[in-house]
Amino acid sequence: MSDVVTFGETMLRLSPPDHRRLEDTDELELRAAGAESNVAIAAQRLGSADSTWTSKLPDSPLGRRVVAELNKYGIETDVVWSDEGRQGTYYLEHGGKPRGTNVIYDRGNTAISTAEAQEFDVDLIQGADVFFTTGITPALSPTLRETTMNMLKAARQGGTTTAFDFNYRRKLWSPEEAKGTLTKLFPGIDVLVIAARDAQNVLDIDGDPRQLAHTLGSQFDFTTVVVTRGSKGALAWHDNTVYDHGAYETETVDPIGTGDAFTGAFLARRLDGDDVPTALEYGAATAALKRTIPGDVALVTREEVEGVVSEDDEEISR
């Protein structure tokens, strides 16, 4: 059995090289990319946990490409293969200011959009220490809204800790739709990760990040609430106490997957027995390293992360 089981869609990401535009490129770089698989990889690399990513994919060369790439990163895959539905993709244009980075989704009629809870191995989920998914998954189809809720319920019934990244995507649904659906999932969640902007703009909660964490922690039955603040780092509410950690200095090569790297490292260190402040520290360091790496995946080592942490500690002690 795996220690961490994640559930969601992993797409194929196609990107023009050298910050070129899609309409002007004659080549595309292909990578596997998905929040839940990114978290599984980061968790396995930053702790002693074994990770499994579970999903539904088309039985096609593109679906098999996803599995082959994830296996290459060392995680297990538990896939429901389908003769119907397609492989989700997205196109990514990197650009500096003022153009910025642009994401174009092509994930309609995908195999995972029809996934139902009974198709998956409940023993795998209930045998894990942590079951993780995100708010992206229920945004993909009405079927997946019910499936996500049922899988969270199954995890809870088996005594598995449930972790959930709110992960609002405005290109997938409106704030009103997201709030109405995701708050219904909250009773089945132990650990919530949410961006401060999403708590404010989607959940309509007022206040600074510290107040947001307290409000979410007191209003819902979460064990831990992690509020991310982008370049300002993150904080966590746990046992009615808020712990704060800033972001580490980094040079950004590719920002995609930064939040997933943070979450995977945070969960890994908590599973290994670290306290919340230490888990925040590792999460922030992993996120900083991820921004230096092309692609969605945090291909970092624990030694590299500890190097960032210790270097910062040395600066503070001088």
Automatic annotation (TrEMBL):
Keywords: Kinase, Transferase. Coiled coil: none annotated. SUPFAM superfamilies: Ribokinase-like. InterPro entries: Carb_kinase_PfkB-like (IPR052700), KDG_KDGal_kin_Halo (IPR054871), PfkB_dom (IPR011611), Ribokinase-like (IPR029056). Residues 1-295 form the Carbohydrate kinase PfkB domain. GO terms for molecular function: kinase activity. Belongs to the carbohydrate kinase PfkB family. This is 2-keto-3-deoxygluconate kinase.
